[in-house]
Specification:
Number of domains: 2
Largest sheet: 3 strands, parallel
Radius of gyration: 20 Å
Number of strands: 5
Distance between the termini: 32 Å
Strand order of the largest sheet: 1-2-3
Bound molecules: adenosine-5'-triphosphate, magnesium ion
CATH superfamily of the largest domain: HUPs
CATH topology of the largest domain: Rossmann fold
Structural class: mainly alpha
Length: about 325
C-alpha cells in the first residue's frame, strides 16, 4: 500500500511538536504500510553549525528517542542518512533540475537564514536534499508537520520535472498530515516550537522532567483574557495550550474547552501540564534506559543503514542510466 519515508534532524532531543506533528503518526504508519523508512537526517543538520561531539551524541539520542516513541526496527527501517551516500548523489542530480528562484521563498531558508542574517549554500538547497531523501526510495507517502508542506511540494515538482526530462520513473509523493499539524512555541505563539530554538522555556522536550514541564507551561505566553477558548487566529497562546491538551489526552478541542469552563488560564495551565506529564513520563523513562547502551543503538543504526542501502542502490543504478552516466 505504498512506501513511507520521513526524516528528523539530530539537532537535539525531539519535542512535543515533533511528537504530535510527526512521530506519533510515524508509529501508527508502521502497521498500515508494508515499507516504512525513518531517517535521522544528519546531512540536513549540518546546514547549521554543529559541534562534532555533540552531533554524534545527538544522533544516538535521536535513535533512543525514536525507539522510545514506538518506532520498531523490525517493522520499519531506522537509519542514519549519511550512512547511505546515495542521498547526496541523487541530491546533486535533482539540484541540477532546480532553479535558484524556486528555493528562495521556502520556509527553512526564510526562517533560518534570517536568524543569522546569512546562510550557507547547504541551507539554501536543503529542500533539494529532502526531495532526494524521499524520491530515493520511490516513496509515495510522507508524514510531516505543517511546516514542511512547501518542501514536500518541491519534491513533487522535482519528481515531475525528472520524469518529464528522463522518462516516467518517480511516483509523486503526497503529504500525510497528522491531526496536530503545528505546535507553537511557548514563548512566541506566532512561531512554531523548534528543537533549535535558543529560548529554553519555549520548548517541551520529550526528556523534560515533570517539574520542567510544569514550569514551562506555567510561563507559557497567553493574553489578558482569563477565559479558556480555542481561537487560533485571535488567541494563539491559549489555543496552543488547548490544542496540545486535546492531542495528549486524546480528546477533541470542544471537549477540552468544555472541561476548562469556569477555570482561568492560570488554573487551566496546571491541567494542561499534568496531561502532558502523563503522556511524556513513560517516553522519558524509556529514553533514559535506551540512552545508556550506545553499542546497542550503534548496531541498530548499522543494520538499518544496510537495509536502506539495499533499497537505494538499485534505484540509483536506474537513475544513472536514465541520466546517461552509464
Ligand atoms: P530544527 O529546529 O532543528 O529544524 P525541528 O523541531 O523543526 O528542528 P525537524 O527535525 O526539522 O524538527 O522536523 C522533524 C519533523 O517534525 C518534521 O516532520 C516537522 O514537520 C515536524 N515538526 C517540527 N516542528 C513541529 C511543530 N512545532 N509542530 C508540528 N510538527 C513539527
Ligand atoms: Mg525544522
Amino acid at each position: 500500500k505504498g512506501q513511507v519515508f520521513s526524516g528528523i534532524q539530530p539537532t537535539g532531543v525531539p519535542h512535543l511538536g515533533n511528537y504530535l506533528g510527526a512521530l506519533e503518526s510515524w508509529v501508527a504508519l508502521q502497521n498500515e504500510y508494508s515499507a516504512v523508512m525513518y531517517s535521522i537526517v544528519d546531512l540536513h543538520s549540518i546546514t547549521q553549525p554543529q559541534d562534532p561531539h555533540m552531533l554524534r551524541d545527538n544522533i544516538l539520542d535521536m535513535a533512543a528517542s525514536l525507539l522510545a516513541c514506538g518506532i520498531d526496527p523490525t517493522r520499519s527501517i531506522l537509519f542514519q542518512q549519511s550512512q547511505v551516500s546515495e542521498h547526496a548523489e541523487l541530491s546533486w542530480i535533482l539540484g541540477c533540475l532546480t532553479s535558484m528562484p524556486r528555493l528562495r521563498h521556502l520556509p527553512q531558508w526564510k526562517m533560518k537564514s534570517k536568524q543569522k542574517n546569512e546562510g550557507s549554500v547547504g541551507l539554501y538547497t536543503y529542500p533539494v536534499l529532502q526531495a532526494a531523501d524521499i524520491l530515493l526510495y520511490k516513496s509515495t507517502h510522507v508524514p510531516v508537520g505543517e511546516d514542511q508542506i512547501q518542501h514536500l511540494e518541491l519534491a513533487q515538482d522535482l519528481a515531475r520535472i525528472f520524469n518529464n526530462q528522463y522518462g516516467e520513473f518517480f511516483p509523486e509523493p503526497c503529504a500525510l498530515l497528522s491531526g496536530t499539524r503545528k505546535v507553537k512555541s511557548l514563548r512566541d505563539p506566532s512561531s512554531k516550537m523548534s528543537k533549535s530554538d535558543p529560548q529554553k522555556l519555549a520548548t517541551v522536550f520529550l526528556t523534560d522532567t515533570p517539574d520542567d514541564i510544569v514550569l514551562k507551561i506555567r510561563r507559557a505566553v497567553t493574553d489578558f483574557t482569563s477565559e479558556v477558548t480555542y481561537e487560533p487566529e485571535s488567541r494563539p497562546g491559549v489555543s496552543n495550550l488547548v490544542s496540545m491538551h486535546a492531542a495528549v489526552s486524546e480528546q477533541s478541542m470542544e471537549e477540552v474547552v468544555r472541561l476548562a469552563e469556569g477555570m482561568d488560564t492560570g488554573q487551566y495551565k496546571n491541567v494542561v501540564a499534568e496531561a502532558i506529564v502523563q503522556k511524556l513520563q513513560p517516553i522519558r523513562l524509556e529514553i533514559q534506559r535506551l540512552r545508556a547502551d550506545r553499542g546497542h543503538l550503534e548496531s541498530l543504526l548499522a543494520k538499518g543503514a544496510e537495509k536502506a542501502r539495499s533499497l537505494a542502490a538499485p534505484v540509483m543504478t536506474e537513475v544513472r542510466k536514465l541520466v546517461g552516466f552509464c
